[in-house]
Design a protein that fits this description.
72% helix, mainly alpha, homodimer
């Protein structure tokens, strides 16, 4: 991808963005992909959390998951507004991500309340880490938006306490949930590869290609960091990563 | 029910509330029931709208229904806060309403996107009209809260346009959807009767019983008004009531 030239024609040093990066259609396309994926991720997170709330054993648990869903929808609204500012309808930007995100969710439909909680916690954690990493390569206003929608949903303690208590009550639960955590990561990686293979502009944003992106060594380190963070989250839940 | 005496022992003229109506445990119980039912209604409306959003034929439609769900959850949060102010946990206040509301929703699960839209519009309309009527008999601060969560969800035009367009495209749809509308009302009435039979304090709030409520003639007029409003909504949708 090193032969790709920014359409603006301006010479660029990797690691630096031009004054108006959106003048470059490849950059604009990459950001629209980034925000389109993020928007659809938030919209599906809303739907799935709202659906998983039905599995709650108590009304308080139901309200807690519904509250997380509502937070995700607020993020969706802000990203949609930005997409419209960039001159594209949110549905058009989200369209390429419908198949991979839906495939991920269809393959990881929680069967129990605890599986739902772990999916919310682990899935949200990986997505947040990934978007935070990629935000290093984008213009400041995009970065500010991305980082702002990655705010902690405030459900970490709620999920950790519920999972830890369930494992204490029945230690055999831990093995099954650890397997579930590994399956979530496996499915997420598999769909991420699919997106990377299909969305050139987005991938170029990540690995450079004329635009300021990560080189291969940095990409490897990034994947290592994402894995480390996932491991820490599983450990906080009392689960073998 | 005319032999029920307010526990405060104060003589009351029907139509007037004492300065501190909450000193009367029957009034307090009635308001907790009113708000508990309203809270659980909003929480289930959230879940069902979020679920029905999955039936949307477009991403814009999905986001529109999700937006309505989020509005309902905001109402739930405000009613919950008031219940806590009254010294009761929201889940305890909602508990008596779980069975009748869930029964209503289980019997009226939409099978299509249009059925989901009509349920949102008609169900929300009837509930709003009912709570607006009952709010005439409560203290000003409860009334202000109830009326504020009955704000138009802003989806009327969206639903009306979608249903009218669907009937224009295929007039046979109209007959099926009219039947669906009648079924929604029938199931709602059936569950309302169940609640009225089981929740004495709430029923007394509505029909008097020492507290300022509607007399039988007024109750009949109220039911006529609710029916009229439902008829108008069905007509706006282009459906035979």
């Amino acid at each position: 991808m090193s032969d790709a030239e920014p359409a603006s024609g301006a010479a660029q040093t990797p690691g630096e963005l031009p004054a108006d990066p959106f003048a470059d259609p490849v950059y604009r396309e990459a950001i629209i992909d980034l925000l389109g994926g993020l928007a659809y991720g938030e919209l599906t997170a809303f739907s799935r959390l709202a659906g998983d709330a039905e599995l709650a054993p108590t009304l308080d648990g139901k309200a807690a998951l519904a509250r997380m869903a509502v937070t995700e929808f607020g993020h969706y609204e802000r990203i949609s507004a930005r997409l419209r500012d960039l001159g594209i309808e949110p549905h058009a930007a989200m369209d390429p991500f419908v198949v991979p995100f839906d495939a991920f969710h269809d393959r990881t439909t929680p069967k129990t309340w605890l599986e739902g909680l772990i999916k919310a916690y682990v899935g949200d954690g990986i997505a947040s880490d990934f978007y935070r990493e990629i935000s290093a390569y984008v213009d400041p206003s995009t970065r500010a938006l991305v980082v702002s929608v990655l705010d902690d949903l405030g459900h970490s303690d709620f999920v950790v306490n519920a999972v830890v208590a369930a494992i204490e009550a029945d230690p055999t639960v831990g093995g099954r949930l650890a397997l579930w955590g590994r399956r979530l990561v496996g499915e997420a990686l598999s769909q991420a590869q699919r997106v990377a293979a299909e969305r050139d502009a987005l991938t170029m944003l990540l690995v450079g290609g004329g635009l300021p992106g990560a080189d291969l060594a940095e990409l490897t380190r990034m994947l290592a960091r994402l894995t480390d963070e996932h491991t820490k989250r599983m450990e906080r839940l009392g689960l073998t990563p």
